[in-house]
Write a structure and sequence with these properties.
Layout lengths: L1 H26 L1 H5 L1 H19 L4 H36 L7 H22 L6 H17 L1 H16 L7 E4 L2 E8 L3 E5 L5 E5 H6 L2 E3 L7 E9 L5 H12 L12 E7 L4 E9 L5 H18 L36 E7 L6 E4 L4 E4 L6 E2 L10 E5 L4 E5 L7 E2 L2 E2 L4 E2 L5 E4 L2 E7 L2
Helix pairs in contact: 1-3, 3-4, 4-5, 9-10
């Protein structure tokens, strides 16, 4: 009866202490840090209650109580040392953010080794070999039975050591993509763009290719392809696409956006707009905003994004009919031509040319007014001489260059010639 009362009392004491420990663990940070030593202390106190209720068993349990007390002391010291090592030294002083799994696994191994060492010290005659052998057989059986779980466990250890990704990194695993919000001993949790929690086994992560968009640097290049009709010159299209990408939140200025001509397809020329983003998680929103801006700019510049079409053109070659330009004399055919400001303060402006001479300079009455400080008031003129458009420098201070060569006199212009006026570059366009 006395032994039954002692067992019941000690069990009640253990249950009460563990319940108190769980309650305090939810409320106190420091209790959570030393949960294992406090659990050992609860076991030691339970043994003390049993010895108090059953004094006859006290001599037999003295060695066990001493072993638990020794284990408690060493476990407490080791836990305090681990707090200093992991939380103070590595995290606070050196700024190293360790995965939560690594300290937990390390302390589990340390507690198991400490228990065996203190057991041998408290009971010198005890042979721990059978225990180790039994543990080995048990571990083998459990390893075969729990192979998937152990695979996830060791994969989690590898992830913790190699750190292919960290908390808050945005990663892609196979077809899944999201932000890393938790790394446990068995699984890794991703928060997707739909705000769903995606749980991936660590073993799957070890087998899959992982793309980390945040490490070693968070910038990411986004590729947007735009088909444009063949009739639009690439320099106009490139300028329009670059203007569309400017000023959008999330698009970096450095590195600056770039435009590449990818291919000449049947119904369009395919361009690729390359942007640098500072947050991959916002890539879809930014891409949508860029596409909307591209549509607006292309329509404003009257640049067509064609449908897949095929056009049959029947022409008398090489005979061409020229359209009469405004201002042409009766019977005089002047081909359609224009000047496009490729570089300079007036970048993007277009001047339509006709049979009438067009003045270019800083004066307000010029057909094309340039604010370039190196441009003269009346810098040059462009006129139709009956066979070609001719550029003539009007004695400007810094001169005019056509394709890098100075203009010494009337210079006939060919399609896509570049006229340099100071830092401004004008491109001559003419229908074939």
């Amino acid at each position: 009866m006395t032994e039954t009362l002692a067992l019941f009392g000690s069990a009640a004491a253990l249950a009460s202490l563990l319940a108190l420990l769980l309650t305090l663990r939810l409320r106190s940070f420091w209790v959570r840090q030393v949960t294992v030593p406090l659990a050992i202390a609860a076991l030691w106190a339970t043994l003390g209650v049993y010895r108090l209720l059953l004094p006859a068993a006290a001599p037999r349990l003295a060695a066990a109580a001493d072993w638990i007390l020794l284990f408690l002391g060493l476990a407490t010291l080791l836990r305090l040392f681990s707090i200093f090592l992991f939380d103070v030294h590595w995290s606070s002083r050196r700024g190293v953010r360790l995965p939560p799994l690594l300290p937990a696994v390390t302390m589990g191994a340390v507690y198991a080794l400490t228990a065996l060492v203190t057991l041998k010290l408290s009971f010198p005659k005890a042979d721990v070999t059978p225990f180790l052998a039994t543990s080995a057989v048990t571990s083998l059986v459990l390893g075969l039975a729990l192979q998937p779980i152990l695979g996830n466990f060791f994969a989690g250890l590898v992830i913790s050591l190699e750190k292919p990704f960290r908390l808050n990194d945005w990663i892609r695993v196979g077809e899944h993509e999201g932000r890393v919000v938790a790394i446990t001993w068995r699984t890794t949790h991703l928060r997707t763009r739909d705000n769903d929690d995606l749980v991936l086994p660590n073993a799957k992560l070890a087998d899959e290719k992982i793309v980390n968009y945040y490490f070693p640097q968070p910038t990411h290049m986004e590729h947007l392809r735009v088909p444009i009709a063949h009739r639009h010159p690439p320099y106009r299209v490139k300028r329009a696409l670059l203007d569309a990408a400017g000023g959008i939140p999330g698009v970096l200025d450095k590195p600056s956006p770039e435009v590449y001509v990818l291919s000449f397809d049947e119904s369009a020329i395919t361009y690729e707009l390359r942007l640098w983003l500072d947050d991959m998680a916002q890539a879809h929103r930014i891409a949508s905003e860029v596409r909307s801006r591209v549509w607006e700019v292309l329509h404003r510049e009257q640049i067509v994004m064609p449908f897949p079409i095929r056009t049959l053109e029947i022409t008398r070659w090489p005979e061409r009919r020229a359209a009469a330009a405004p201002g042409a004399a009766p019977g005089e055919a002047v081909p359609a031509a224009s000047l496009y400001v490729l570089e300079g303060p007036e970048r993007g402006r277009t001047l339509a040319l006709s049979a009438e001479p067009a003045l270019i300079g800083r004066a307000a009455d010029c057909a094309l007014v340039l604010s370039d400080p190196d441009a003269s008031k009346e810098h040059l003129s462009i006129a139709w001489d009956g066979q070609a458009f001719v550029a003539t420098d009007l004695g400007s201070r810094f001169g005019t260059r056509v394709n890098g060569l100075p203009v010494a006199g009337p210079t006939p212009l060919s399609p896509f010639d570049r006229l340099a006026v100071g830092d401004s570059v004008l491109l001559f366009e003419r229908d074939a």
